[in-house]
Amino acid sequence: MVEKGAPVTALKGIGPRSAEELRSLGILTAEDLLRFFPAGYDRPEAVTEIAAAPADVPTAVRGILTTAPVNRGFGNKTVTSFSIADGSGRLGVAFFHMPYLKNSLHKGDERVFRGVISETKYGLRMDHPKIFQPEEYDRLTHAIWPVYPTMGILSQKKLRGAIAQALEVCEVQEEMLPPSLIGKGWMTEREALRQIHFPESEEALVRARERLVFEEFLVFLLRIRLMKAGESRGNPCPMPKTTLAERFRKSLPYSLTGAQAKAWEQIRSDISGEKRMNRLIQGDVGSGKTVLAVMALLAAVENGYQGALMAPTEVLAEQHFEKITKLFAAADIPARCVLLTGAVKESSKRVIRQELADGRADIAIGTHALIQESVAFKNLGLVVTDEQHRFGVRQRETLGAKGMKPHLLVMSATPIPRTLAIILYGDLDISVIDELPQGRLPIKNAAVTPKARGSAYRLIQNEIKAGHQAYVICPLVEESEAMAGENVGDYAERLKAVMPPEIRIGVLHGRMTAAEKNAVMQKFQRDETDILVSTTVVEVGVDVPNATVMMVENAERFGLAQLHQLRGRVGRGDAQSYAIFMDGSGKPRKKERLEILNRTNDGFKIAEEDLKLRGPGDLFGIRQSGEMHFALGDIYQDHETLLKAAEAATELLKEDPRLEKEENRRLKEQIARLLGKAEAI
Ligand code: ADP
Ligand code: MG
Is 292 in the pocket of ligand 1 (CB under 6 A)? Predict the structure, then answer.
């Protein structure tokens, strides 16, 4: 008998290598596996006749091989092809890099082929379909199949098997929600977990998801409220002097906008006041939040404290470091900045750690690891988190656990309406920067189909001739069987072939090492690259004002809020900028979504309209915002559930302020579990 706390290897089919992969996803036990949620669901289509099959959407046809598979070489690719027929028509089938298929498929075999049919001048064709035995496919239809977000050796089949076993062994589970809440009609935990993995119907799936989203929000909200209750009052790091910050402000080539100036006044009054600062600066992309962070950091330095600036990515940390050190040098600001990221050599890291410990370094810039790792500060007085996940909650917890009480400034471009912000940010005070720097021209947008790619490239060339730069975003890193979408490496090659030779093209993606990424970004920053072909690693924060074109391939695959973030990479200087959203889907409804981006530049409106257009079938799938990594919940889509969770959290804490009652034990354990995970990541 396998226990629920047993390691995943106790489950049939999970060996050491699969376990390793699961561990990298934070899954150690059978019980952990239950909350490894599907990224989406597969609903196998009923088999259609070839003649009646629609083009360009996933389709299943059942046919007999009328020719034996043949392998042919094209450059370094092997293409395996054959024909099938089903009495209504004939279809060509092709595979890349799968020469061994020739051994398992023969003329006369009958199979179901599931894939996308396209019309070519040689007739109908299906590339890279999935192949099934007809009986096997029959069993698959009529069911909703979970699809898990894995990449390595763990197959969907293996995972489904393991999760089905985990559901069995964790059968005796107690309920996480106390009876007062379950009484309000939420699905039980056991049922919800069962239905989220193996839904019996669409309705059951929706209810299961709702329940689990509620639970996720509730645990999160309880966590911040308990944390807040435990925080001390007073202002342990008073910072009354701001002449250095004001000197820096005067050295800038522009003056602050009204909104920036107001936010600065609020920061100043916080850090010199009676309570330690807990402030959120909310401002759309390009509104100029960074300069406020720098001024606050300088106030810390002038008053004898150290400051830390934490960015969500190494690319962004590096960019902040470069800019800030340059600005300090130009204005002769006596503050020593150090950069601490994974790209920094171990020997330099040691020196930097020493400098932070003995107080020679004033400002540390880095990623979240800055306070997570064993970095000791002599006298940390301010922590700024830029575009940080989950509202800086983790940082506050870590700092609290280390007994440090610096001021906190959280900067976010995620548009959240005030009612939700108050719930999500707990006790943070909020400054809103609702004004863009002067002289910014509105970005010109176009949602286009691949037919317009030629004109898009001409626009890019013209902009480069005029001295500007461009981004092209592709969804994937390398050729993948699962998705035929544009990918960075191949795309850059093709782009080189059609662009004039003097145009310099750089490539950036998440699988590069930190040092490689930095090198690429620096070249782009210094205008030594004209076009940066990238995945969404440039999504947040990157600031290269000379870039004027943002072209997004397969834009239909991105959430609109995310596209809005990407668009925010241009229009950051005074030149006219352009955003081109390439819709590769060929479906009108998708185009309609993209056109919302044309109509408005307001991030929250965009998220709202996006929701209205998405049906329940899209409940999963589109990632709305990189900043809020809830496993299931989406603050926009599930905002009603969020309100309910906030209400429930208030009620629970009223009855049981420290969650000490037995009926709340599992909730408390879940909070502790997440805390432990946050520490481990
Ligand atoms: P975000 O709010 O997205 O983090 P940044 O702080 O990166 O925005 O600022 C975007 C760009 O605007 C930067 O190049 C910055 O130098 C510039 N900027 C900031 N404030 C002003 C201002 N008041 N006037 C003109 N340009 C500004
Ligand atoms: Mg920023």
Answer: no
